[in-house]
Design a protein that fits this description.
Blueprint lengths: L8 E6 L5 H9 L17 E7 L2 E8 L6 H11 L6 H12 L6 H11 L3 E7 L7 H12 L3 E6 L7 H8 L5 E4 L7 H12 L3 H38 L2 E4 L6 H29 L22 H7 L3 H14 L20 H10 L8 E5 L5 E5 L7 H18 L16 H5 L4 H14 L4 H21 L14
Bound molecules: guanosine-5'-diphosphate and magnesium ion.
Length: 479
């Protein structure tokens, strides 16, 4: 057997609009496959390879779906006289109708199956079984190729049991599978199911599963580094400019804006890195729907969403208090500039909790050339690393669980308890690292390594910590 023929290939077939292309997108991690309510979006067969690190694991053939299964079946029945010549009848059918308009959809979807592809038959579990499906299932059965049926529930209706009963008469394996939201485990289970369909697929698909599992671990560990780098950069960031004489309020304001802008850019850049790592290159972002995850790092929502409870703030304030004081206030009155406008209320209450600690301080000093400089930052606020880390973890979690069939903009549900839940168990460890970063500088190699490790653990646990009550549907396997 040559290398190519041992690569499992699956033809995804079924009625139009049942989520075939969605399934292909999810299983090939390809966001560029057209998914649409309009029938006929997939007009030709298209082969989508699933590759990881250049290795081809399996291939999926997206087909247009059946159009005239009833008349096709009629033709086949007239042609075949016994079960032994059915596969041949299918081949004849394709050869004869290849160029005709009438059965173009049927010919296209049968072609890869004749050539040895496995069959994945997709139905919509939200609508009831109808007689017209029987022709499709019969045709597929006649090909004699290994097959599996997937019930993809697109709407609210629930006819899953009815479908299971029917499908199990035609397919050896029947499963529910939401093509758009299937989590990693569900995808792995599906591939393992495929591996049972044909002996020569077993090894390659078991290998595919283990490569996918590795990919997941590696992506998390790379993400931890990306997030750590982001935090380290943000915690170390300060901006400065030369001034003559006393700094004006205007100059100070400008520098604060500059700091804020640079922090936002750092966050954006690292988010993009994580999205790219997960092969989400073109995430659609509708700003109004992205009020929080894509929202402003300095918006009130961010502070609330990833902010600590007042108890936690008080506790953390005791540690944080000792870490500050290295910067000199610009204004003799002792009032320090606060970052930006519009977050006054939040900052106000934070400062109250923190006993006067400010977000970013301004200071003046002379540089080595003897020039007077105004500096804003770095931000020493004890709350700050938790905000940026909380946002990063939630963003990562959203990206990690997002299938490539999902095309709606990403958004977060508002949950005031996210940070509390996220850092409930190991808050002290993070506190220690952040405190030392404030003292030693955020670029310390050892601290960065420790932080990466902690983040890595957190990325693994975050989905459990933040899980809602939605438990994925049980796998239903009929045989
Ligand atoms: N809610 C939901 N919608 C889905 C799911 N799968 C497909 N759809 C929607 O159904 C329509 C058709 O999907 P598509 O994958 O293009 O189906 P195909 O015609 O069989 O290839 C699109 O509007 C999808 O957004 C699913 O699992 N859940
Ligand atoms: Mg399609």
């Amino acid at each position: 057997m040559n290398q190519r023929s041992s690569i499992p290939r699956f033809a995804i077939v079924g009625h139009p609009n049942k989520g075939k292309s969605s399934l292909v997108s999810t299983l090939s991690q390809d966001e560029n496959i057209a998914i649409s309510l309009m029938s006929g979006t997939t007009e030709r067969n298209q082969v989508y390879p699933m590759r990881i690190d250049g290795e081809l694991l399996y291939e999926l053939v997206d087909t247009p779906g059946f159009q005239r299964s009833r008349s096709a079946m009629q033709w086949l029945k007239e042609r075949s006289s016994s079960p032994t010549d059915r596969a041949e009848a299918i081949r004849d059918f394709v050869n004869l109708h290849q160029d005709s308009h009438t059965f173009s959809a049927e010919c296209r979807l049968l072609q890869p199956i004749i050539e040895g592809s496995g069959i994945i038959y997709v139905v919509d579990g939200a609508i009831p079984y109808g007689k017209e499906y029987v022709f499709e299932m019969d045709i597929l059965r006649w090909t004699g190729q290994p097959s599996m049926a997937l019930i993809n529930q697109i709407g609210d209706g629930d006819y899953i049991e009815e479908w299971e009963q029917t499908l199990s008469q035609y397919f050896r394996i029947v499963r529910t599978f939401n093509a758009q939201t299937a989590d990693f485990q569900k995808q792995i289970q599906l591939l393992s199911g495929f591996s049972e369909l044909k002996e020569s697929w077993h090894q390659p698909l078991i290998r595919a599963v283990s490569i996918l599992e590795n990919q997941r671990v590696e992506r998390r560990s790379e993400s931890s580094m990306i997030i750590m780098e982001m935090i380290s950069q943000m915690l170390a960031l300060s901006v400065r400019r030369n001034i003559s004489g006393e700094a004006s309020l205007f100059e100070s304001d400008q520098l604060h804006d500059e700091l804020k802008q640079e922090l936002r850019e750092i966050e954006q850049l690292h988010r993009l890195k994580i999205e790219q790592l997960y092969r989400h290159q073109n995430l659609e972002r509708q700003e109004d729907e992205l009020s929080i995850i894509d929202g402003d790092l300095f918006s009130e929502d961010s502070w609330k969403l990833f902010g600590l409870t007042s108890d936690q703030l008080l506790a953390a304030g005791a540690i944080g208090g000792a870490a500050t004081g290295s910067t000199v206030d610009l204004f003799t009155s002792g009032s320090t500039l606060l970052l930006g406008t519009g977050i006054g209320a939040v900052i106000g209450s934070l400062t109250a909790w923190l006993g006067g600690e400010k977000l970013a301080k301004s200071s003046t000093a002379k540089n080595s050339a003897g020039e007077k400089q105004l500096t804003v930052g770095p931000i020493k606020n004890i709350q700050f690393p938790y905000i940026i880390l909380g946002r990063a973890i939630f963003h990562h979690m959203t990206i990690e669980k997002r299938t490539h069939a999902q095309r709606t903009p990403i958004h977060l549900t508002e949950d005031q308890n996210i940070t509390k839940t996220l850092f409930n168990d190991d808050r002290k460890e993070f506190d220690r690292i952040f405190e030392r970063m404030r003292k030693k500088g955020a670029d310390n190699k050892q601290l960065k390594e420790n932080l990466t490790e902690l983040i890595n653990k957190k990325l693994l646990k975050a989905p459990m910590l933040l899980s809602t009550s939605t438990v994925p549907k049980q796998v239903r396997k009929t045989q």
